[in-house]
Amino acid sequence: AATARSSGRASGQIRKRIGSYFSFAGVGCNSVEKKIYVHLNYTVPCVRLLNATHQIGCQSHLSGNVGVLHVLESEENVDWVLRSGPNPPYLVILESPLFTRSIMMKLKNGSSRVAGVAVVAPSANPLEGVSPHTTCPNENTGVYTENYDPSLAHCNVTVWNPLGSGLSYEQFDFPIFSLKDDNDTQVIRQCYMDHNRAVNGSTPQYPLCAMQLYSHMSAVTDTATCMRRNDINFSISPEMVCDPLGDYNVWASTRPINNTAKGHKMWESVVIAAARLDSRSFFFEVAPGAESGVSGFVTLLAAAHALRNATQEAPPNRTILYTFFQGETFDYIGSSRMVYDMQNNNFAVDLDNVHSVLEIGQVGLRADSRLWLHSDPVSRKNDSVNVRKLIESLQTAAKGLNVSVNEPGFSQPLPPSSFQRFLRARPIPGVVIEDHQSAFTNRFYESMYDNAEYLNISYPPNLTPEEQLVFVTDTAKVLLLIANIHHVHVLLNQLYKASPRLPSDSLFNMFSVPQVTRMLYGFLIRSNNSWFQQRIPPDFMSHLTDRPTNFYVGVAQQRSELTHLVQYLLANLTGSTANISQDNCQNQREDEKDKESKHMYSYVWVQGAAPPNSTKREGFCVRSTVRLSKALSPAFDLRDYTSKNYSTWTESRWKSIKGRIFLVASHDLEVNFPFTPQRQHMECRFNLHLCFMNFLRFLLTMNWLCTHCRKSGKLDAGIHCSFLE
Amino acid sequence: MTAAVFFGCTFIAFGPAISLFLFTIARDPLRVIFLIAGAFFWLVSLLLASLVWFISVQISNKDSATQQKGLLIFGVVLSVLLQETFRFAYYKLLKKANEGLLTLSQEETMPISIRQLAYVSGLGFGFMSGAFSVVNILADSVGPGTVGIHGDSQHYFLSSAFMTLAIILLHMFWGIVFFDACEKQRWWAVAAVVISHLTVSCLTFQNPEYVGSLVPTYVILFLMGVWAFYSAGGSLRNLKLCITCKDRDFLLANHRPR
Fold it and tell me: Which residues are listed as membrane-spanning (chain B) (predicted)?
């Protein structure tokens, strides 16, 4: 119930004017409701999220917000909505260039006259950058706090996201929906043109075109309030009002680690190679996350694949732990949970085992073909933290590949990255690879425009999906190069010290470009493609869609499509085929008697490809070290819902999200069943008056009755009848 | 759209009928019983007509518009004929019941005259027919929107309510004329009632040209009203006496002690 998809019935087409005297179109399809309402098919709302101190997002009334349509032409036109328009409340239709902070703040301040906003999403990205995220992402839960170093806190040195307007983190009292620029929206515009346009300054006449949006959110105020309300157990079926955000982190190791024995592992020294999975935007479940998420983890997946072959030939003395964190957008849910688990001996290794951290951040854009290695200036001052060696080996690796890799050149804090949570626990050497020297080069950070088009993943026209799948884009080559650097660096660092004999092929082994191409296609264009289909179990087939993968982390109860995909891909890319039956494979064992393998390995039965002359797929078992670890903020385990150290983000629940348009025919727009709160204060006063009058009347009647009964002898004469006294 | 339209249309459609019920029928339990029985008979006629229509639509070709239109006309005619048949059946039933009531009761005179039965059963038919005509429209009128986004006329709710009012009153007049004609064996009057019912029902095919359907309906309503008045025993003299409160028989009959 928490993340119901958009509902809306199917009648969205305009019918021709019915001029004939016969208006019956067929059996059972003529209903009065269809004459009145046109339901919207594609409704993407903005939902309410809560944290320890605030609620953000949008809210509508329980019975929907009704407003007269108004298509906003310019910023000056907002005055019509807020002051001069004669038929408030208005429901404002915005084209996306007008969806800016200044207009939205004006609408927010005049919200008694604004019933809602509908934003028409364009089909192409805008030219100038737009980011609804804050200018300093995750500023309170990173490592740079007042205790650590006050001069670096709150983005004092570098503002990471200068284009950020902070719209995603504002609270609105009206619903804001996103509409696609398609036929339904054309119907809306046409309705506005036909009925609502003010001609030559005259007021538009009734009937007017109006829209009703439903997106009532159950949770209010903050996380502590809504979690407390979750626990109320008055009825047999208690109603939940919110759910914590979270999912699962995906991790794998080059050497098998015993996952059942948690806590410190003797003689184990681990290098964590981290990347972030998730992203977000202003609207619910619209999160293309191309540059902010996909570029990073696809690179890491490619590197993991390359290293598989190399590490099998010459096993390194340090294990590499590939970790893909979920929920990093919302105050580092995944990485804070992993660090917490490591500190509490709840993870396969602990912080003493961690040698260093290498994180791949946003690497997709590579303006002027340079990569930047960010490190933490505070921990570098400590001599035991040897970041210098890391950076040198990375630079050596890059030289061999003709890529320029530099440090920022001045003392700059780390950009928002999962590595910051590790530093919060203890100083560890680590580097974050990014494509920007100081502020983000990503102009659409955490916005709905951060999609394949932004990464220049474009295909020649007239390619079928299968042909697009294998078409090698420039971006694929870019990411490949980065993955190579990482691959080479790791090899240099680990293998060169360990054994003098280096297989030279593996150093410059250009692993297949098609891998990266297919991954980019699958995550950014269409997850239902043949390459992905061959690498997933049969029951996951139905979860693949024809749209780009959604990177929003979602609530903790629902495992997202993305986590599963990354898990299966990582298993295929770092694991090996095992000759085991399907039954044994699905029971995590090598044969019937095996009870030990499940501690070290995980097994997944993938459906594979169909041979050329048959339609039945030949499945096989993949043995790998891929595991899932829970990514739910420790604040919910500790029940500390006002925590300042951990993420406290929750998502509100709702009943129905839908919208419809219709004509309204009189001034009594507000008099609905039940009375909508626009006039509620008036009704309240009116009812109060009624109450008072009735009470007075009751008193007078009782008074009269009493005196009458007394006079006629039915009541004792001694009784006092003055109720008014 | 909204409460105003809902209440307005409800009172337009059912106002006169409810006030007739309250002032002339509600006090007498026997009349109430016969009213409800009449409503039930109308309901059964509708059930039969809809059964036939449903089956015929299922076996027809759903894509052909002319066939569907023809089917609709057939449905309307069949429904009207069935309603009148059931009115006749109810008349027969009431005649038998009246004789039975007479033998059972202590008094010498019949507790309820056939004229009163005609009025009451006609009103019963009218109530049920009106309810089925207009209730689903009223339910949709409560929401915030009004008809018109696809180009339909905006007066949909209002004209439906007025049509329903006409139908309810017409059923009442038809009942009176029909029973009177059956009593006096005047079969041409029965045929006239059936034909006027068919006419009114077929006039609705003029919609959405509401003027073309409502005005003739109200003309027919007025004419049927006058006919029913005369067949119930009214005359200009009675009317004048009643209006000026000089009709002693009426006053005596309706005098109630305090």
Answer: 6-25, 32-59, 71-90, 117-139, 159-179, 186-206, 212-230
State the DSSP string of B159-203: HHHHHHHHHHHHHHHHHHHHHHHHHTT-HHHHHHHHHHHHHHHHH
Question: How close A220 gets to chain B, by Cα (Å)?
Answer: 27
- The DSSP code for A548 is P
One-letter amino acid of A30? N
CA distance B215 to chain A (A): 16
Task: Specify whether the CB–CB gap between A406 and A370 falls below 8 A.
Answer: yes
How far, in Å, CA of B190 to CA of A19, rounded?
Answer: 36
Rank A16-30, B140-154, B168-182 by mean pLDDT and report only the highest.
Answer: B168-182
Q: How many CB atoms lie within 10 A of CB A612?
A: 5
Compute the distance between CA of residue B48 and CA of residue B78 in angstroms, rounded to an integer: 10
Cα(A32)–Cα(B157) distance, integer angstroms:
10
Angular region, A464: left φ>0, alpha ψ -120 to 50, beta rest: beta
- Which residue from A26, A663, A671 is facing B4, i.e. has the nearest CB? A671
Q: How far apart are CA A281 and CA A165, in angstroms?
A: 12
Find how far residue A521's CA is from the centre of its chain: 20
Helices and strands (H and E) in chain B: how many? 9, 0
Q: Which residue of B has its CA nearest to A65?
A: B144
H/E element, A46: none
Kindly report, residue by residue over A368-384, the tens digit of the pLDDT: 678 889 999 888 888 77
ipTM for the assembly? 0.84
CB pairs under 8 A between A and B: 102
* Binary contact (B146, A36; C-beta < 8 A): yes
- Provide the shortest C-alpha distance from residue A16 to chain B (in Å): 7
Helices (H) and strands (E) in chain A, counts: 21, 23
Q: How far apart are CA A126 and CA A450, in angstroms?
A: 11
Q: What is the structure's pLDDT at B90?
A: 95
Asked if the model's pLDDT at residue A492 lies above 60, the reply is no
Start-end of H helices in A552-638:
561-574, 582-586, 597-600, 634-637
One DSSP character per residue, A237-299 reads SPPP-EEEBEEEEEEEESS---SSS-S--TT--EEEEEEE-----SSTT----IIIIIHHHHH
For A190, nearest residue in chain B (alpha carbons): B149
> Is some CB atom of chain A closer than 8 A to the CB atom of B152?
yes
Cα–Cα distance, A219 to A55 (Å, whole number): 9
CB of A72 within 8 A of CB of A44?
no
| Helices B210-231 and B187-203, axial angle in degrees (round to 10) | 160
pTM recorded for the entire structure: 0.82
B153 touches A: beta carbon within 8 Å = no
| Residue type for position A334 | G
B143 touching A, CB under 8 A?
A: yes
Residues of B in contact with A672 (CB under 8 A): 2-3, 144
A66 contacts chain B (CB < 8 A): yes
Both structure tokens of A558: 């629902």
Question: Is A48 in contact with A652 (CB distance < 8 Å)?
Answer: yes
**Hey, are the CB atoms on A207 and B68 less than 8 Å from each other?**
no
Q: Which residue has the higher pLDDT, B71 or A505?
A: B71
Distance CA B197, CA B77 (A): 10
Please answer yes or no on whether A663 and B147 come within 8 Å at the CB atom: yes
Nearest CA to CA, how far is A108 from chain B (Å)?
24
- DSSP symbol at A143: S
